[in-house]
Design goal:
Two copies of one chain form a homodimer. By secondary structure, chain A is an alpha/beta fold. Chain A has helices at residues 16-20, 35-48, 66-82, 109-125, 138-142, 148-156, 173-178; strands at 25-29, 53-57, 88-92, 131-135, 163-167, 181-189. In chain A, 36% of the residues lie in helices and 17% in strands.
Chain lengths: 204, 204
């Protein structure tokens, strides 16, 4: 854990408070487990602060993250009924984005990914959420479905105080360059190496 | 993400189902962020499966993880009132374990850590929880406050189907050897390197 003290003070003309409250671009990458899990843990902390959360799941099959989705939707309901925490909007590309149910696009992943990013751009411009969790967002970028230059320009110019967390392997080097916080999750040992399949509660 | 297929099938006489449902020892280590956050994300998934969660915070100051504690306590209340998810027992060494409020021990961290581990041993023997999250547990081991041989023997002999997740830097090599799943979180870039202090919702 960092000790809470910066190792250098930049000459950027900002006060400590201004610097502290700068919106962050966070990237979790690497071949190990925990990239998305840590991102959802971060979102949990934000929810507790009353943040408006937007979760956008790219790529993942319907099976994955159902546990997180269930909990965050319950937390969103808790917010609606008691005012605790913040609102949660959970969007999954795999089952069709809620704002885009066009016939014929369900299987066109490149189009669906681009539509997802277009919506995220609209929401960033409108300052819709406090925290955007773009889960597995590195893949549609790596596959050329979403233009990394557009992502970098959009994120650099995003208004207000909107945090963005991006997960996935093979993050574009320029995305890492642009990020404020990058953690690489490295697989040291995994039970599947010893012939064990994933299990309920651990993998999903 | 693993593709869900083991890379080798061991000759251990177990069926796939038996192997799949083997209780896991998970370790999140390394100098990067996300070790605890990913562990809490894992616990969230377990809660959603109805698991009984025991969280034991070693070392951390009172400020840290308050967000997670608040959310998990709300989830525990949700379980108590609606039956959703599972029960949650959150224990913090920093403010004194709930079962041990002896005068004079608050500042004796070595004694407090040993008492925490003794209680975890009792609970493991009684099969009290489905998932034990031992946050920052590597430190009292590294500092010699808790005997690593005792930890290894206790975990190897734990009865039933109890998952254990351990977080912290400088994990003992034998703990990594004994673990089923090890992820190392590596710091690639952190805003504190650029003179930015931690901020609400991101760091706590």
């Amino acid at each position: 854990m960092p000790q809470g003290q910066p190792t250098a003070v930049p000459e950027d003309g900002l006060t400590t408070r201004q610097r502290r409250n700068r919106p962050l671009l966070v990237v979790h990458t690497g071949d190990g487990k925990g990239k998305s899990t840590a991102a959802f843990g971060l979102a949990l902390r934000g929810w507790n602060q009353g943040w408006d959360l937007g979760v956008f799941q790219f790529v993942k099959s319907a099976k994955w993250r159902l546990g997180e989705q269930s909990v965050f939707e319950q937390l969103g309901s808790l917010h609606a009924s008691t005012g605790a925490g913040g609102p949660v909007d959970w969007q999954k590309m795999g089952s069709g984005w809620s704002w885009s149910r066009k016939a014929g696009t369900e299987d066109d992943h490149a189009v669906a990914a681009a539509e997802g990013w277009a919506e995220i751009k609209r929401r960033l411009a409108a300052e819709r959420h406090d925290l955007y969790l773009l889960d597995e967002f590195t893949y549609p970028i790596a596959w050329g479905w979403i233009d990394v230059d557009d992502v970098l320009e959009t994120l650099a110019a995003r208004p207000g105080h909107q945090h963005v967390v991006i997960t996935g392997r093979r993050a574009d080097p320029r995305l890492l360059e642009a990020a404020d916080l990058v953690t690489e999750m490295t697989k040291v040992k995994h039970p599947m190496d010893a012939g064990q399949k994933g299990q309920r509660g651990i993998e999903w």
